[in-house]
Design a protein that fits this description.
It is a single chain. This protein has 201 residues and is mainly beta. The chain has one domain (16-197). It has 4 helices and 9 strands. It has a 9-stranded antiparallel sheet with strand order 4-3-2-1-9-8-7-6-5. The longest helix is centred in the last third of the chain and has 14 residues, at 145-158. The radius of gyration is 17 Å and the shape is globular. It starts with 15 loop residues before the first strand and ends with a helix.
Length: 201
């Protein structure tokens, strides 16, 4: 691709990435999947249609119980970092250097969103302008989003080159350590990112 959008290798119909993560919530093993995909392109108006499909399950004595499933899609301006969600409110954006498993150290734009009692954090790769990781944080009523923001900023300052998952496990914040779910990129067809997460053998 040439021209003003050449820096975005994911600008083609069908570009996608899948993300996966597990955590323990209330002593139950939970897992979540997310697929983000480029559904359509409108270069004339400088926009792209992005869809997201996510689901979450927790294991019980009787098998897996689905906790939720969401399908969303929307047109956004090419180059904008926007999470496709119905009621997500952007609360903060900052830069950081994050060690990503399989990708090495990456410069990221980190966005924090609130959606009810939940906080989601998106780690956008600064070079590719595509999400590398999603962090979901499940707050209780007594915890404010400001407490989560402070904990996140402390986490980013103290990672010291550790992978994000290891840093969460060592966090002094109870909400980050015990009530968070990290979704890491598992598969993609995006040139540049694909080679990074699946290097040739």
């Amino acid at each position: 691709m040439s021209g003003e959008y050449a820096q975005y290798p994911w600008l083609f119909k069908g570009a996608y990435a899948t993300y996966y993560g597990t955590t323990k919530l209330a002593r139950r093993l939970c897992e979540a999947n997310l697929r983000v995909e480029v559904e359509d392109l409108d270069f004339q108006n400088g926009r792209v249609k992005i869809s997201g499909h996510s689901n979450m399950f927790c294991k019980t004595l009787f098998g897996a119980k689905k906790l939720g499933e969401k399908k969303v899609a929307d047109w956004i301006k090419i180059g904008e970092r926007v999470v496709i969600a119905d009621k997500a409110i952007l609360e903060g954006e900052y830069e950081g250097v994050v060690r990503v498993e399989g990708l090495g150290v990456r410069k990221c734009i980190i966005q924090q969103y609130s959606e009810g009692l939940n906080t989601s954090v998106v780690f956008w790769d600064k070079e590719f302008n595509w999400p590398l990781k999603y962090l979901l944080i499940f707050r209780v009523k007594k915890e404010s989003s400001d407490e989560v923001t402070d904990a996140l900023k402390d986490l980013l300052k103290t990672m010291m080159g550790l992978p994000l998952g290891d840093s969460l496990k060592k966090s002094k914040s109870v909400v980050l350590k015990e009530r968070s779910l990290l979704l890491s990129m598992r598969e993609t067809n995006i040139p540049g990112l694909k080679e990074l997460i699946s290097p040739p053998s």
